[in-house]
Amino acid sequence: MKLGIIGLPNVGKSTLFNSLTKAKAESANYPFCTIDPNVGIVTIPDERLYVLQEMYQSKKVVPAAIEFVDIAGLVKGASKGEGLGNQFLASIRGVDAIVHVVRCFEDENIIHVDGSVNPLRDIEIVHMELLFSDLEILERRIEKTSRLIRNDKQAAKELVLLERIKAHLEDDKPIKCFVTEDEEEEKWFADYNLLTAKPVIFAANVAEEDLLDDGASNLGVLKIRKYAEQEGDEVFVICAQIEQEIAELDAEEKRMFLEELGLQEWGLEKLIRAGYNLLGLISYLTVGEVAAHAWTIRKGTKALEAAGKIHTDFARGFIRAETVRYEDLMACGSYHGAREKGLIRLEGKEYEVQDGDIILFRFNV
Fold it and tell me: If residue 217 lies in a helix (H) or strand (E), which one and from where to where?
């Protein structure tokens, strides 16, 4: 999972990035303090792996991971090159989903690029720049495809699709509700890699006092939640400054700090949950003497494809998948105990892997 952190300048993007990755990306009180994207890899906390490690005496734990990209602040006119906008927009095209940080706190010591705090206005500015960038991509593709239609029936069909998408965007309709008519159109649409088609997670950056009720008393957060519900996007509430303080603590200190603040979880955990929900992701587990390992896949992934994620030989020589639910294994206390109770299942290639499945792939090559 690769997430791009975007937003206007001075909304807390780099501060959030630093807290999530414990990196030292520059954070300052002026626009464009981030020029080139900062990249950080973060492992996903999963207590199940450590329980399995102890049970199997595994040498190491290998959690799933998220790649974060801290992309410099966008401004009005970014799609026309303002604020090095073209460079920043290009960085967004490589991510699976967008984490849009929106400022929902007042602080006279932190300047706002547009002079005042207005979450929906800020969201609209960024949205329009992504939209203008997509329209520019489509116009170039239309121009190129138009030159081919005389001798290419496929080009003629693609041109019809391009014109439909362009009209859809010009009507300011969400691209997420655009419907392709067949597999060929679906493939072309995916190849365009439109920014407005990417899933969005809104990170509502609030003051510390607004964390206690998860932003329920913050008017800006309420507006963002209503907007996101209409668009089918996710929202989570953070205080980026608090997140940065938490990131410096060890696990026990972090737990105590959260308890003092009256919080159940910190921003990374919220973001992981939002990202998994939005992208339809789950994790299955493998375990042995070498490692307890988590593997991230999409919901609905079949056993054959899941096996190939570990190694192509696993898929090429697939025989079966010996599967047990994590909860069942814990209830029985051991793999042997689960087998005695008939909880070890033998699944074939078409089995849809479930979150928390512990799988031993049998294969022969």
Answer: none
d(CA 314, CA 304): 8
β-partners of residue 65 are 43
Nearest to 105 by CA among 243, 205, 237, 211: 205
Task: Give the pLDDT of residue 305.
Answer: 97
Helices and strands counted in the chain (H then E): 14, 12
Give the type of residue at 89. L
Residue 80 CA to residue 290 CA, distance in Å, equals: 52
Q: Strands, DSSP E only, in 194-247?
A: 200-205, 234-238
What is the three-class DSSP state of 274? Answer: helix
* Cβ-based neighbours of 337, under 8 Å, separated by 6 or more: none
C-alpha to C-alpha distance for 85 and 364, rounded to whole angstroms: 51
Beta strands in 44-110 (DSSP E): 60-62, 65-70, 97-103
3-class DSSP state for residue 2?
Answer: strand
List average pLDDT for each run of 10 residues in the chain, which is 365 residues long.
Answer: 86 84 46 53 88 94 88 59 54 87 85 79 89 90 90 90 94 85 92 91 92 90 94 89 83 84 82 88 94 95 96 94 96 93 95 96 91
Q: Which residues touch 30 (CB under 8 Å, ≥6 apart)?
A: 9, 10, 111
pLDDT score of 349: 95
- Measured CA to CA in angstroms, residue 198 lies from 4, 149, 218, 245 at distances of 10, 29, 27, 30
**Residue 333 to residue 338: CA distance in whole angstroms:** 8
Q: Taking the complete model, does pTM exceed 0.85, yes or no?
A: no
Q: β-strand 281-287 against 234-238: which pairing, if any?
A: unpaired
Return all residues near 253 (Cβ < 8 A) that are at least 6 apart: none
The tokens describing 334, both together, are 């051991």
Q: CB count, 10 Å around CB of 116?
A: 8
- Residue 188: which residues within 8 A CB-CB, separation 6 or more? 158, 161
- Spatial distance between the Cα atoms of 30 and 342, rounded to a whole number of angstroms: 62
Interstrand relation of 60-62 and 345-347 (parallel, antiparallel or unpaired):
unpaired
β-strand 291-298 against 97-103: which pairing, if any? unpaired
In the DSSP assignment, the letter for residue 163 is H
